[in-house]
Amino acid sequence: MDALHILIELTLMPLVAFVVGLFMVLMMRRIAARIQRRVGPPLLQPLYDILKLYGKQTQISHGILHDIGIIMAVGVYIAAETMLPVPGMNGIADKAGLITLAYVLMVPSLGLALGVGQCANPNGSIGISRALTAMLAYDIPFVIVIFGVAWQAGGNNLVDIIALQQVDGIASWGIVQTPLLAFAGLFALHAILGKHPFEIYIAPAEIATGPMVEMGGKYLGGLFVMQCFQLYTAGVIYTSLFLGGGENWLTFLVKSFAVVAVPICIAYLFPRFRTEDVVRLVWKWPVMLGLIGIAFVKN
Amino acid sequence: MTPLDYLLLLSLLTVVIALVAGHRSMGGVWLTFTYAAQLGGLMLMAGLTNQPDVITSSLSFTILGQSLTWRYDALSWYFALITISAGLLSTMYTAGDWGEKFRADGGNLWLLHVAIALNVLSMLILLGSGDLLTLFIGWELVSWASFLLMILAGGPSIQAAIRYITYAMGGAMAILAGLALIYGHTDSFTYPAAANILHSLSTAHLWAPLLLLTLGFGVKMALLPLHLWQAAAYAHTPGPGAAFLGAISSRMGLYALIVVLIQLVGLVRVIELPVLFSFISARDVLAWVAAFTIIFPTFTALRQNDARMLLAWHGIGQGGYMLLGLVMGDALGSAGGLMHVFNHATYQAALFFSVAAVVYRTGTADLNRLGGLVARMPLSFLAMLVGIIGLAGLPPMNGFVSKWLVYRSLMLEGEPLLFVAAVVGTLGTILSVYKLIHNMFLGQLRVEHENIREAPWSMTAPMLILSVVVFVTGLMPGLVLQWIAGIQATVGLPVIDYSLGGLDSAQGSLDMLWVVGVLFAGFGIGAGLFYSGGRTHRVHQLDNYAGGHFLSADIRYHYSDNFYPGLMRLIGPLYRYSFAWLESAVQSGLGLLSLSTQGFYRRVAPANYALVTAVLVLLWVML
After folding, report:
1. Does an H or E element contain B417, and which?
2. Do the beta carbons of residue B330 and residue B413 sit within 8 Å?
3. Partners of residue A89 on adjacent β-strands
4. Interface test with A, best of B370, B523, B558, B563 (most A CBs within 10 A)
5. Which one of A160, B277, B290, B571 has the lowest number of neighbouring Cβ atoms within 10 Å?
6. Prediction ipTM score
């Protein structure tokens, strides 16, 4: 593969991720609206929101680390998208692998945490404390799932994992081969997205939106962009691990959107759990199912 | 004279200079140069890492028919590199303003220099041990040298150091017993003879020396449940001393374990060796001990309110990764375990340096009495940031690569539970290090810290050097992996197939050059996006949302104590201090034993006991 080719891939993959992510945000807001019997925002509303936030006149910084935190959170997601294979483009997926991806995806949380810390607002710090606790909770089933999938595939190269699932159609999909892992993965995914009932770290009425308390203008805009990437990443990882990845762009997008839609449809039906209940819940069911699932992995 | 002789003599010279000039104001600078000379001497032997070769010392004794020899191979070289570098940077840190202040505050700077120099010398001697007897001699030297370093600050460190030496003596007795068992079989202390006999021993007979030696060396490694001494002993050592100890001291235990488990017994044998009356092997036992060493101390660290204690507890936990990788025994796992020794030394020393800089400026390491220092001490913050990313094992720092190798190995070996244990340790570390950096450097700057400045260059330079090393070896792990491959070839492990960026493998490669490159490209784009937005203006830290109230400088608006209440509400009851309880039970048990023994011969009717003994002896003689 020549340099130009890979450069094009590395540029296109985050771009695609961003655009798809925008539509995922739109879908999320439309689903929420329909559940609440509203109409929901128009097609380009997510884009308008981002442009508005970036263009605002009042942009309050609490210090250089506040800025760097946002840059890190967005930048690392941009980087992570090049490790996620999409139809026709592998980026650097075969140089990084699944474990690396899982660990790279922890860095935006750290970046955000640093930025929020600099804001010197205890509401933000409490939010981060809760978000990191939630990360401790959901990452355990998540890595169990990753272990199971990688063990099933005999390696942690995401490209191979997808290729293996496409050998035999739906019968070779991860969700058919390892249904328990797939369920545990979906559960973990829901917690990773941080939507209800797992959004105690935002809790607007209690800690004034937690990490976002001192964020406005392009800081909030950066978090909005990060959310686009987050939804896309979650959908694509799950699709790659359990739904055979994308044979072509159409099936790829359909699967990814469907994956994201599932937790979101459930989310808006719930209030939120307390932090310790999140941990208790996530350490119980998905971990148990995941471990049983690993026991059934054929290797 | 061989290069090893030069190295040992240089190290001896360093001790002499420390003794003679350690109290002078320029003493630290001279010592820094002699450590640099030692490093140069070590570099003369760098060829060791390329081929399985040995450089012997001309120094040798023959005592009671046993010849004592010292030699270096790739393994010794690697550990010596870390030892000398840790000594060099710690002394550099001490040489300037830190040492002045330490002396002004009543500390004994001369003793600190001497203790570090002695530690380096004794470790170099231990690393050169060419037979079991020199191993034991080196071991004792190291134990006493670290004891000196731990105790010299006085105050609370005395109790911690005495606790350490008690454990160390217990460990040494176990080692001595193990060596005696081996000697009983062979009448020789040489490695080949010991290896021969250990290979031919039956399972039941192998267990005794193996267990004794592992326990003895495990004390230094602070393997569970022998870990209680370490955190306090390291944390109470003065700044650079703690950095030195945290970087390398307890890894001497790992070195000795490698000699015993891999070079003498052979890892294949350990993997096969069954635990009697069960279905698990000695390897499983070691792996689980390592896994628990990862988890428990990490979550103990999470509860600490003193930055130095927090780091010291993490040091124990990280040792678990090294052992875990090593006992997996494949190319990836052992490479990860060995590489983690280097990586841990680099970021742990940087972290201790950074904390010591904060203590130097503020006078406290209490995580509830700091905050907001990033605005005043940006370089110390940077060193800590790099350090915690390394400690947490996140890309792009070097800690990630070594842990990645361990994870991959656990994955390939099909060990889901150990894998989860390793990841739980990492996640706990992320929580704990965020608390560390948040409570010290982020959040609200206290009024009394309004006017402090960055630490002087003599202190920031060593930590920045280490930060660069942490980053560069994360970007190009091949630099360290070439030494690791040399070690693996020398000690008889499968050799890792590395590249400059990490690993080339059909089952999933890692190329950190690409990963880091893409990460920084992402940062660049993120920065471009960010700065293309509207102009920002900087506000004062008190210009903050406070639910409609106005903040003033006397209001403490910082969240620090009990940082993870949600988690603690769930796992808090699990902290039962069982190990401390076990320790005190052993302690009172021993006390009772010694009291009753005393009573036996001293207090209660000695004549009767003498009579009973005499009768028994007579019976034994007659029958």
Report:
1. helix B416-441
2. yes
3. A86
4. B523
5. B277
6. 0.94
Q: Hey, what are B140's tokens?
A: 């004792």
Whole-number Cα distances in Å, B239 to A281, B334, B459 = 42, 31, 11
Helices (H), B187-281: 191-200, 203-221, 230-235, 239-244, 251-257, 267-272
Residue among B395, B507, B527 minimizing CB distance to A155: B507
Q: Is B29 exposed, middle or buried (0-12, 13-18, 19+ CB in 10 A)?
A: middle
| CB–CB contact A123 B411 (8 Å) | no
Which residues are CB-contacts of B332 (< 8 A; sequence separation ≥ 6)?
Answer: B405, B406, B408, B409, B412, B496, B503
Of B100, B522, B321, nearest to A72 by C-alpha is B522
Structure tokens at B471: 């980053």
Residues of chain A in contact with residue B555, where contact means CB-CB under 8 angstroms, are none
CB contact under 8 A, A54 and B532: yes
Distances (CA, A) of A215 to A61, A209, A221, B90, B534: 9, 10, 9, 41, 14
- pTM > 0.95: yes or no: no
Angle between helices A93-104 and B398-412 (to 10 degrees): 100
Domain extent listing, chain A: 3-295
Does the beta-carbon distance from B427 to A122 stay under 8 Å? no
**Parallel, antiparallel, or unpaired: how do β-strands A60-61 and B537-538 relate?**
parallel
Whether residue B545 and residue A208 make contact (CB cut-off 8 A), yes or no, is yes
Residues of A in contact with B557 (CB under 8 A): 120-122
The answer to whether the peptide bond before residue B456 is cis (omega within 30 degrees of 0) is: no
Residue B19 CB burial class (10 angstroms; 0-12, 13-18, ≥19): middle
Q: Which of A1-5, B327-331, B476-480 has the highest mean pLDDT?
A: B476-480
Q: Would you tell me which residues 386-445 of chain B have a C-beta closer than 8 angstroms to some C-beta of chain A?
A: 389, 392-395, 400, 404, 407-408, 411, 414, 416-417, 419-420, 423-424, 427-428, 430-431, 434, 437-438, 441-445
How far is Cα A95 from Cα B259, in angstroms, rounded to an integer? Answer: 34
What pLDDT digit, counting tens, does each position of A117-175 carry? 998 889 999 999 999 999 999 999 999 999 999 888 888 888 888 888 888 888 888 88
Give how far B444 is from chain A: nearest CA, Å. 5
The verdict on a CB contact (< 8 Å) between A214 and B545 is: yes
Cis bond upstream, residue B240 (ω within 30): no
CB contact under 8 A, A103 and B559: no
The 3-state DSSP class for residue B497 equals coil
CA-CA distance, B269 to B352, in Å (whole number)? 39
| pLDDT more than 90, % of chain A | 53
B513, B397 Cβ separation under 8 angstroms: no
**Smallest Cβ distance to A10: which of B518, B541, B558?**
B518
**Where do the DSSP E strands lie in A53-111?**
60-61
Sign of the Cα torsion A116, A122, A124, A130 reads positive
Which amino acid belongs to residue A203?
A
CB contact under 8 A, B570 and A279: yes
Task: Say if residues B480 and B81 touch (Cβ distance below 8 Å).
Answer: no
What residue in A sits closest to B435 (Cα-Cα)?
Answer: A129
Closest CA relative to residue A153, chosen from A179, A169, A180, A172: A172
The type of residue at B225 is: P
How far, in Å, CA of A246 to CA of A254, rounded?
A: 9
Which two three-digit tokens encode residue B195? Answer: 């290896």
CB-based burial, B270-287: b 16+ in 10 Å, e otherwise: beebeeeeeeebbbbbbb
Distance of alpha carbon B263 from alpha carbon B283, whole angstroms: 15
